[in-house]
Amino acid sequence: MTNKGAIGKAALTGGDLRSFFERDAITVARDLIGCHLLVNGMGGRITETEAYFPHDEASHSFRGPTRRNGAMFGPPGNVYIYRIYGMYWCLNFVCTPGSAVLIRALEPENGIAQMIERRGTDVLTQLCSGPGKLCQALDIDIAINNRLLDRPPFSISPSAPVPIISGLRIGITKNAEVPWRFGIQGSRYLSKPFR
Q: Which spans of this chain does the record mark as coiled coil (predicted)?
């Protein structure tokens, strides 16, 4: 299976950004695979995502808007950042209000030296192989929460279609049986292999 919704190679801005993200989170999660994400000029190709919905018990939006999850109810293409385990940041992109896509992993392409320094490893496959590692490598924290992806420090551009694999979401206990995790088939730059 390949992502059929990918459009052009130019950065997503304005109406393009809204139309790309104002769709079902599963569709967006699939179509984000292979896209290029930069934060302050550093980043790479998105290799793994997960979809979340308001009716999904595993989602932060399940109980409605709060001060913590308010960005998740923002406009399509909004950024929602939260902390897990009291120490790791996670990056999400809002689709329709209350729905979002977690960016789980990417293949480093730009700013690799800075990523190596931040992560304390020069193993490229380990730089962004999980949502917490990705945020550490790209220096993402709550300071850039609740911003649209077409504004600094973000830049996101679609890619040509890539082969996609899907599987069960990982790292959660509620509603874990749904196949809403997506990745580039055969990629070495994943948080965990697909089974």
A: none
Handedness of CA 9, 17, 185, 117 (dihedral sign): positive
* pTM attached to this predicted model: 0.89
Burial label, 186 (beta-carbon count in 10 A; 0-12, 13-18, 19+): exposed
The 10s digit of each residue's pLDDT in 138-195 is 999 999 999 999 999 999 998 888 999 998 867 766 767 778 899 999 999 999 999 8
**124 burial level (CB within 10 Å; 0-12, 13-18, 19+):** middle
- Residue 18 has which token pair? 């809204």
Give the helix ranges, DSSP H, for the chain: 14-21, 25-32, 112-119, 124-127, 131-137
Q: For 126-129, which contacts have Cβ atoms below 8 Å and span 24 or more sequence positions?
A: 128/44, 128/189, 129/105, 129/189, 129/190, 129/191
- Enter the tokens of residue 32: 């984000």
First to last CA, the chain: 16
Phi, psi of 87 (to 5 degrees): -145, -20
Question: What single-letter DSSP state applies at residue 72?
Answer: G
Ordered structural domains, the chain, with CATH: 14-184 (3.10.300.10)
3-state secondary structure of 113: helix
